[in-house]
Specification:
single chain, 298 residues, Deoxyribonuclease I, Chain A, 6-stranded mixed beta sheet, 12 strands, 23% helix
């Protein structure tokens, strides 16, 4: 079974990229984030094309913001929007955002997740992010939805780089979200449940990124970060035959700012083609030059 996750940053804008990619890579299960469509609009613009390719669809949307989906050709059972205890924003009892959907696909409980960004350390949105992750961990630990952590795959844009090795230069991220100790501690909470970062396991020493800011030529300089993850319970992680980031999908005309993450269970039909396809166009060396993030104000 081939499982992929991709933050498409507006699925309507990405249709000319998404459909050919589905035909090329032929994933069995696809987790999408930032669809930015209502449920009805998603089915209107993509329902027929996905059905033609054999995909069942579970989508949770809220119009122009957020939105997550699971596409499956191997079954889509027990679909759940959100998770037990999911907090709202700006208050915990506010309506919940469209950031999580899960379903059982060929015996694996698959989550498509778009973790809150956090915006700025110690902001209200940052604390919301930490609470959101804590409640997700509790839900997974409690076997919510009838699946234990062992049979679970958390897929999506986690908006956290697990370690300093997952950003192009740790110094550039000082004072920013995605790399703070509380965020990384929250992410490590899933490891305590037995979930494993299957891409990093496969490529322990490689420079592997999944996101590059649109601005300042960050992609062409390969100044990125790895925030799109697949965390799998032990028995599922043991089935991983290949795990890689499809950098090719970040190239070309009107791409998302994220690249898909692809994980093959049991067999790898394309072989183990590596985390970067093709090799970086202009790989940068850490510490070679002072680089500020485009969003930096100083």
């Amino acid at each position: 079974m081939r499982v992929a996750t991709w933050n498409v940053n507006s699925v309507k804008q990405r249709i000319p990229r998404l459909l050919p990619w589905l035909d090329q890579r032929a994933p069995d299960v696809v987790c999408l984030q930032e669809t930015k469509l209502s449920d009805d609009a998603f089915h209107d613009v993509l329902g027929a094309d996905l059905a033609e390719r054999g995909y069942e669809v579970a989508h949770v949307g809220q119009g122009q913001w957020n939105g997550v989906a699971i596409l499956s050709r191997v079954g889509l059972a027990d679909v759940r929007s959100g998770f037990d205890g999911i907090p709202g924003y700006p208050e915990p009892d506010s309506p919940t955002e469209a950031r999580a959907v899960s379903a059982t696909c060929d015996g694996v409980r698959v989550y498509s997740l778009y973790v809150p960004n956090g915006r700025e350390p110690d902001s209200d949105h940052y604390h919301y992010k930490l609470e959101w992750l804590a409640r997700l961990r509790d839900s997974v630990a409690a076997a919510s939805g009838g699946a234990t952590a062992d049979s679970t795959m958390l897929c999506g844009d986690m908006n956290i780089a697990p370690t300093d090795a997952d950003v192009f230069d740790p110094a550039a991220y000082e004072g920013h979200t995605h790399v703070t100790v509380p965020e990384r501690r929250a992410l490590a909470g899933f490891e305590e449940l037995g979930l494993r970062d299957v891409v990093r396991e496969r490529w322990p020493d490689d420079r592997v990124f999944s996101y590059w800011d649109y601005r300042a030529g960050m992609f062409h300089k390969d100044l990125g970060m790895r925030i799109d993850l697949v965390l799998a319970g032990g028995p599922v992680a043991d089935r991983v035959a290949s795990a890689w980031i499809d950098r090719q999908a970040r190239k070309g005309s009107k791409p998302s700012d994220h690249a898909p993450v692809v994980v093959d269970l049991d067999n790898a039909p394309d072989g183990d083609i590596g985390p970067v396809v093709p090799p970086p166009s202009n790989p940068a060396k850490r510490g070679a030059a002072k680089v500020k993030l485009p969003q930096s104000t100083e």
